Amino acid sequence: MSKVGRNIHVSVDRLRQLAHRDARPRKIKADAGTCPKCDSHYSADEMRRNLRVCPACGHHFPVTARERLEQLGEPGGYVELWGDLRAADPLQFTDLRPYTERIAEAEKSTGMGEAIVCAELEVRRAPAIAAVMDFTFMGGSMGAVVGEKFARACDYAAQKGVPLIVVAASGGARMQEGTLALMQMAKTVIALDALAEARVPVIVVLAHPTTGGVWASFASLGDITYAEPGALIAFSGPRVIEETTREVLPADFGRAERQLANGQVDAVVDRRELAERIGRVLHILRRPETDGTTGTAPPGLQWAQDGAQKVKSMMDRMRPGATDSGSGG
After folding, report:
1. What is the torsion angle, in degrees rounded to the nearest 10, for the CA atoms of residue 111, residue 114, residue 115 and residue 119?
2. Rounded CA gap, 132 and 164, in Å?
3. Triad 122, 128, 131: Cα angle to 5°
4. Between β-strands 116-123 and 79-81, what pairing exists: parallel, antiparallel or unpaired?
5. Structural domain tally of the chain?
6. Cα 150 to Cα 167: distance, rounded to the nearest angstrom
7. Is residue 77 part of a domain?
């Protein structure tokens, strides 16, 4: 007769050892590739291929400004504009550390010169000018250089007659520049108003977070406004509002989906579909080409040329030291 099996013996000492040994970790330690929403883990290559969006739950990780430009633009890349502009310290501001030290640290850690990158690029073969903010540079705060680069981007878009794409991600105005930072709210609004006169369309993408003076100025004035899923879009964060009003806010307060329901944005678009969506809009809004035989613009484009001249005059008056004398009325 064949042997069916053997008895299994487990000693009590062995069970005691298993009971008292250190508990094994239940999950892999979280890192930059760990989704904070569903705890899924991804390698750097996987994240790059999926545009830093979790394939499991759709959580949108933050991206840098240059990474954003690569995602939106064609494989040929983009041409950065005014990358040499740097912030000054006119107020000689110091809190726990001097402002100049904070700027130097931000430049070293991010490899950027400011919290916004402006570039000329093509999105799905449609030309555009882009102004993309980067939250990793001092929380994407808006100072004098951010306002100047944004105004230049508006001016350049009007001259070229191509749409402006704005990607906002900011904590608001930069406190270290005081009133000078708050003045950028008016400056950027005037720049967009000039684009409206030139009939140049503006597409705004609201990324997480878009708050403070940026949301209270140019980020809320796009002709077409998209938002990324889950992005916080509000003047103040929910914690500050709750502490001030002593009221409990809804869980989705200020989130992109709630702003869509309230009519503040036109659509909530997954980052993986964003370039295609913007590209289609750019092709719809593309102006007709000039007459190749005469080299002149069709009559219908005369408004664009006049509008671009208005933008140039307005921007010239906004430059430091400019006066209204000699403006020709």
Report:
1. -90
2. 11
3. 110
4. antiparallel
5. 1
6. 11
7. yes
Structure tokens belonging to residue 228: 């990324």
Is 10 among the domain residues?
no
CATH number at residue 84: 3.90.226.10
Instruction: Give the separation between CA 187 and CA 174, rounded to whole angstroms.
Output: 15
Phi first, then psi: give them for residue 282, nearest 5 degrees. -65, -40
Question: What are the two backbone dihedrals, phi and then psi, of residue 117, each rounded to the nearest 5 degrees?
Answer: -120, 125
Q: Is position 101 within any domain?
A: yes
Q: Which whole-number Å values give the CA distances from 130 to 3, 98, 167, 203, 227, in the listed order?
A: 78, 31, 8, 9, 16
Does residue 288 contact residue 267 with C-beta atoms inside 8 Å?
no
Query: 285 and 258 in contact (C-beta within 8 Å)?
Result: no
Name, in order, each residue with C-beta under 8 angstroms of 231's C-beta and a sequence gap of 6 or more.
Answer: 60, 206, 207, 208, 209, 210, 255, 256
pLDDT (tens place) for every residue of the chain, 329 residues total: 555 556 656 566 665 665 665 555 555 555 677 898 888 889 889 999 999 999 999 999 999 999 999 999 988 789 999 999 999 998 999 999 999 999 999 999 999 999 999 999 999 999 999 999 999 999 999 999 999 999 999 999 999 999 999 999 999 999 999 999 999 999 999 999 999 999 999 999 999 999 999 999 999 999 999 999 999 999 998 999 999 999 999 999 999 999 999 999 999 999 999 999 999 999 998 876 654 444 444 443 444 555 556 666 666 666 666 655 444 43
Does residue 119 lie in a domain region?
A: yes
Count how many Cα atoms sit within 13 Å of the Cα of residue 296 in the half-sphere of its side chain: 5
Give the CA distances from residue 195 to residues 50, 200, 202, 236, 328, in Å, rounded to whole numbers and listed in that order: 34, 5, 8, 28, 21
Residue 175: which domain range? Answer: 66-286+305-315
Both ends of the chain: CA-CA distance in Å? 115
